[in-house]
Design a protein that fits this description.
The chain is α+β, with helices and mostly antiparallel strands. The protein has a single domain, classed as Orthogonal Bundle (Arc Repressor Mutant, subunit A). The chain contains 6 helices and 3 strands. It has a 3-stranded antiparallel sheet with strand order 1-3-2. A hairpin with a 2-residue loop joins β2 and β3. α4 packs across α5. The radius of gyration is 14 Å and the shape is globular. The two termini are 15 Å apart.
């Protein structure tokens, strides 16, 4: 992971909504138990919109930022997009951050 990539990841975490999304995705069964689709797909973007209480376009922008940073992955099933945490990248980020500080 380069310094530029680390900086991009830190910037992705600078917004509280993005940190909330990562927290929610850590325990989807707790935060999205009422999702109609299996949580094994991930969490549907629409469920994240509802949980955050923000517009679809705003949440899409936050999800795109997290995805560019590598913190989340998406999977399209039919017309829906599902999101999951990328635990390997998160762990790599935490290790690198620990080394830097």
């Amino acid at each position: 992971m380069s310094s530029a990539e680390l900086d991009e990841m830190i910037k992705a975490l600078s917004h509280p909504v993005r940190r909330d999304i990562l927290n929610w995705l850590k325990q989807p069964e707790r935060f999205f138990a009422d999702q109609q689709h299996p949580l094994s797909f991930g969490v549907c973007a629409g469920m994240i919109d509802q949980k955050a209480g923000l517009s679809q376009s705003t949440i899409s922008a936050h999800l795109a930022t997290l995805q560019r940073a590598g913190f989340i992955s998406s999977k399209k099933v039919g017309q829906w997009n599902f999101f999951t945490r990328n635990e390997a990248v998160i762990q790599q980020f935490l290790t690198r951050l620990n080394e830097q500080l």
